[in-house]
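Researcher: Can you fold this with manganese (II) ion in place?
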Amino acid sequence: MTKNNNIKPIIGLEVHIELSTKSKMFCGCPADHFAKKPNTNVCPICLGLPGALPYVNNEALDETIKLGVALNCEVAQFSKFDRKHYFYPDLPKGYQISQYDLPLNQKGHYEMGTKRIRIRRIHLEEDTAKLVHETVKGNKVSLVDFNRSGVPLVEMVTEPDFDNAKDATDFLKEIQLIVKYLGISSADMEKGSMRLEANISISTDGKLPDYKVELKNINSFKFLEKALNAEIERQKEMIKSGKKIVQETRGYDQKKDTTFSQREKEEAQDYRYFPEPDIPPLNLSKKRIDFVKKQVGELPKEKFERYTKELGLPKNYAEVLIQTPNRAELFEDAVLNGGKHKIKAKMIADAMVNAKIDNRFKSGTEIVEELVKVTRKDYSGEEETGDAVQKVLKMQKKAVGDYKDGKTEVLGFLIGMVQKELQGKGNPAIIRKLLSKSLK
Ligand code: ZN
Ligand code: MN
């Protein structure tokens, strides 16, 4: 029997992400398969017809490398595709073109707070067709839609570096956001563009156990966290009562909040991997990889750092602003425009986070215009403006003289000086009115 004080969950993650390239992975069919008429985006290659020859989608290669770069991977100059064999009706060739021993990206890592999560690999493969289970004329049938067949699919695998469900789920949320910032996928879980899997075992002696249970087909972060916690409890109970845990794939029952056995897990040799003979190995130049690296822009965590440290935003503001690439872009656009009008980043952030000003205005310029209006109303009353007018008139004797000599064009200059005195918060109409009155 084992002592319970050493018991620790060990969790590793596997994520599949559909790339939003124009065309499929190995043919020219459109990759966008969502809500399309079934079997309209197909050709002999993605239907797996005999003799059809696949060719590699370069856009997909670059996008996969981008994710590798974002997660600090070693990007391989030499890489190749392999055939992974298994039989299933959604796989017309009887094998999936994937990558086995030489993936595009390996040995990455990602810092989460004080923890470092190691990324084992990020490789490129093709998606399968989609099975649709329906009733046609009273008969239960399974239909195959090949529109999804051959869509570029990225698979990311972490090392088993998590010891609780929340960290694992939080990590995946951050990965989803990174993918959105990279612009390589919608990473929409409801549409199946991002699919989660976790493997989990319980260590009783600080070492990696000789089994793992895989949780599959989980379609939301919330359910993944629940499923992991349910599975941790199940395994702990088994260990307590001295039972052996078998290596298998399990699903999650949302209603009962428990996991259930689906099938015993295949080992790698069951897939009979071998190099894909129809696709030459990939030789990527350093120049190309460097070019792709340069296209990786500022990522959410870097934005968060910059917003809090350089722009001085409170952490909770920064968190909300980076939640979507669009919002962050709008915020930055507004900050850029705000500079000219003395509208501070903090004020823009406040208006976006609390007043949701970005729901009403779609550009940074519009947001700043609105804030300028609001602040003018708030800060530069007629009295304050009158004081500023008097001060400027005293200081600008020459301009006043010129004006009285008939050079009325100096009025614009005087308005500008008053505006400067009011730090840009003056209402031009009121300044003009008060100046004209005083200059009579
Ligand atoms: Zn095709
Ligand atoms: Mn896969």
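Model: Folded with manganese (II) ion in place. The chain has a mean pLDDT of 91.
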